[in-house]
TrEMBL record:
A Pfam family that the UniProt record links to this protein: Peptidase_M18
Xref: InterPro entries: Peptidase_M18, Peptidase_M18_dom2
Protein family: Belongs to the peptidase M18 family.
GO BP terms: proteolysis
Any Gene Ontology CC annotation: cytoplasm
Name of the molecule in the record: M18 family aminopeptidase
Keywords: Aminopeptidase, Hydrolase, Metal-binding, Metalloprotease, Protease, Zinc
UniProt-listed Enzyme Commission number(s): 3.4.11.-
Cofactor(s) this protein requires: Zn(2+)
GO molecular function per UniProt: aminopeptidase activity; metallopeptidase activity; zinc ion binding
Superkingdom as given in the UniProt entry: Bacteria
Length: 436
């Protein structure tokens, strides 16, 4: 098995076992622990050893992992990679139970800017965090992923909406609540059906649950990730945006040696898809607080920032052959043609000419191709955690990502070469770059 094939198989496994941000973080922690990285708590005083790897988590959904270099960070800077653990989805409301015409449904909120039509007629299930009271009266939290399909959002038949293929409008409040089955409304107990069902699921996994207090749950598609194409050159999966980058950055960090002089760091935040404004999002203090603890005094912190580089990894829009006119004619990235350097004059991406040149250099060191993306001048542009990191920290930033189709759909597509190419460029950044 070649390195690229093994890497992609690992990516598929990671995607399969990460149906929610909490599960993605748990999957990353498992790999970090297997590689000898040690857990840290923000509430403890840290005693760090050069060459050792560490990780810490906030609220179970955002993670920072780093390997401390042999030299002080003020003298070398920190080589940082950033991604996000969340993806657009349907989040379950607190009082979710709906009883309509003999069917049990759950009320949902649209999380992030998702494509809504692809969520219809999918085999859906639930995943996320459940907070409960145990038999000793203490509050606990557990990750829960129901692996079997338990819900569906059925489409309206074409016979009942003859204009569906021309102009179909979805009302998120009325048309997106998934159906979980049949029920008799008069026998139902509103606001407790879901919690009681969750309690039973947790007990089956060994948890001592007296009652479920609250939850952070999302619906997800149970269809497994897959290789697609006559030559299996495409990856089809949910949550490629942006778990592909989380996995790619993690593997690059795990490749670092304990003898490196420079500290390497990966941050993966929740809440990017809704603006990052939270205690665990990129606009929060999580990353800055860790960097200040690594540097110590203010002078050392400022010297560290001046010597650091942050690579914001978030997937890019690949040119779609059926909609090629949606791209600038000179900036339409192709799948399996290398990672994409993302540029925007209005600072929706944080790339500068300097940081673009640096990332190009990393690709050259790794002997992988690279591309550039600029949105059409008559279209709006999305954003990433890159501008946030640049604004909050004052650090140099480059925005890059693997090209993909169907961004923010329930099922997205990327290339089998591009995640590997990106990993190799990040590996060169952490292990081969002489610094600048």
């Amino acid at each position: 098995m070649t390195q690229q094939v093994a890497f992609n198989q690992g990516l598929l496994d990671f995607l399969q076992h990460s149906p929610s941000p909490g599960h993605a973080v748990a999957s990353m922690v498992k790999e970090l622990e297997a590689a000898g990285f040690k857990a840290l708590s923000e509430s403890d005083e840290w005693q760090l050893t050069p060459g050792q790897g560490y990780w810490l988590v906030r609220e179970g959904r955002s993670i920072i992992a780093f390997r401390l270099g042999e030299q002080p960070v003020a003298e070398t800077g920190v080589r940082m990679m950033g991604a996000h653990t969340d993806s657009p989805c349907l989040k379950v409301k607190p009082n979710a139970e709906l009883f309509h015409h003999g069917y049990l449904q759950l009320g949902v909120e649209v999380y992030g800017g998702m494509l809504q039509h692809p969520w219809f007629d999918r085999d859906l299930s639930l995943a996320g965090q459940v907070h409960f009271q145990d038999e000793a009266g203490k509050l606990q939290v557990a990750l829960l992923a129901i692996e079997k399909p338990i819900a569906v959002i059925p489409s309206l038949a074409i016979h009942l909406d003859r204009e569906a293929n021309k102009d179909s409008t979805i009302n998120a409040q009325l048309h997106l609540p998934p159906i979980l089955g049949m029920t008799k409304e008069e026998q139902a107990s509103p606001s407790f059906v879901l919690r009681e069902w969750l309690a039973r699921q947790l007990r089956q996994t060994g948890h001592q649950v007296t009652q479920v207090i609250d939850y952070d749950l999302c619906f997800y598609d149970t269809q497994a990730p897959a290789l697609v194409g006559l030559e299996q050159e495409l990856i089809s999966s949910a949550r490629l945006d942006n778990l592909l980058s989380c996995y790619t950055g993690l593997q690059a960090l795990l490749s670092t040696s304990s003898s490196l002089a420079v500290t390497s760091l990966l941050v993966c935040n929740d809440h990017e898809e809704v603006g990052s404004a939270s205690a665990i999002g990129a606009q929060g203090p999580f990353l800055e607080s860790v960097l200040r603890r690594l540097s110590g005094a203010e002078q050392a912190y400022q010297r560290m920032i001046a010597r650091s580089l942050f690579i914001s990894c978030d997937n890019a829009h690949a040119l779609h052959p059926n909609f090629a006119d949606k791209h600038d004619e000179n900036h339409g990235p192709l799948i399996n043609a290398g990672p994409v350097i993302k540029v925007n004059a209005n600072q929706r991406y944080a790339t500068t000419a300097e940081t673009s040149a640096l990332f190009s250099h990393f690709c050259d060191l790794a002997k992988v191709p690279y591309q550039r993306f600029v949105v059409r001048a008559d279209m709006g542009c999305g954003s990433t955690i890159g501008p946030i990191a640049g604004t909050k920290l004052g650090v140099r930033v480059v925005d890059v990502g693997a090209p993909q189709w169907a961004m923010h759909s329930i099922r997205e597509t990327a290339g089998t070469k591009d995640a590997w190419y990106l990993n190799q460029a990040l590996h060169a950044f952490l292990n081969q770059w002489q610094g600048d």
